[in-house]
Amino acid sequence: MSWTIWAAIIVVAVVIYALVKRWETKLVLLAAGFFLAALSLDPMMAFKQFDKSMTNGGLIVSICSAMGFATVVSLTKCDVHLVTLLTRPLRKMGILLLPLCMIVTGCIAVAIPSTAGCCAAVGPTLIPLLIRSGFRPAIAGAAVVGSITPGLLNPGSAHNVFISKLADVEVINFIGKFAGYTLAASAFIIIVVFLLCLIYHDYNASQDSTVSSTQTPDGESTVQPKLLYAVAPLIPVIILVAASIFAPELKMSVATAMLLGSVYAIAVTRTSPEKACKEFFNGMGRGYATILGIIIAAGVFVAGLRAAGVVDLFVNYLQHANEVAKIGGATGPYLLGLVTGSGDAATFAFNEAVTPHAEKFGLSRDYLGYLAMLSGHLGRLSSPLCGGLILTAGLAGVNPLEIVKRTLPAMLITLIAAYFIL
Fold this sequence. Notes:
The chain has helices at residues 3-20, 25-39, 43-54, 57-76, 78-87, 97-111, 115-132, 137-145, 158-167, 171-199, 227-230, 235-246, 254-269, 273-308, 310-319, 322-340, 344-353, 365-381, 387-396, 400-421. By secondary structure, it is mainly alpha-helical. Helix 4 (57-76) runs antiparallel to helix 9 (158-167), helix 7 runs antiparallel to helix 8 (137-145) and helix 12 (235-246) packs across helix 13. It is globular.
């Protein structure tokens, strides 16, 4: 191997260390990418990749519009109505309350795919409910944060948009192709968490489980849920699915569905259109800064690796060991998601560098991209550094490691199962 590849290996180790230490993700990836490109005497490769990623129209339109819609949903409190509507029938269900709460959280995750966002929406209601019903706080937190895998079905998810563009397929078709695997993984996680609840003796129906005001919010919502409000977060998903089945000639875009969903939320809640419009575009800006910012930075990092010769070396190796590509897609993003608490950087970097060459390994781009996406997602939910997991630990009043003892085995077993099933 050349000296630039050895230098790249050292830089990758430094990047992992910096991410574990919670340094700014975009800064770490950008600095590493530009450094490697300059070290390889090809700095323009990183700059060209920066320009290309920054002006990627397909990603900008879908991701920013989805974030704008999420902001409108939050402004109109439609997410609160959805959570309240789904959780009220769950009281007095005994030990079955655990899997039922996980199913409800999964349904809400389809509309609110952000880990932290979904946990913030459902945690203050479901965690106190579970604890008062006899579940230990650790399993209550694990039930919430471990249930968001159905969020991978959301067409506004950055990974869905990114992979479908790589595979040159419509995002709704990509989601539909792997929806069965996503739902199977979600069901598998629920089963494993339920079994862990029994193994750890995390349920005691006779215990006096009260939640102090210092541990969690009261959890009793004073909102009277309205059906028209509650369905608002689901409107874009309904529109995209219906259009793909009944009117494919319309070629309904994610952005169009998000705009229609925003209009619906504004109309039924009678929110000020002026205020909602401002919030929509503020949300779009935050979407570019947070999600697209990581995509841009990951692209520059991969460009640096490519300039150093690492990508070509890796691709050539995978061409002669096809099974390694599948193992890499399953384990690489998972491990980095586990040690950093974020599966985004690892997943985007893997899909930027390796997935475009999937055909050379005897795999399809959408297959390898989905495997990496699922792997990074499960790795994040296994990590005590995951923002959503830390949030649920705070709501439950426990150490994040107590929740990890429940989520890590569930996610790791699910990943192994997914590897052999996919």
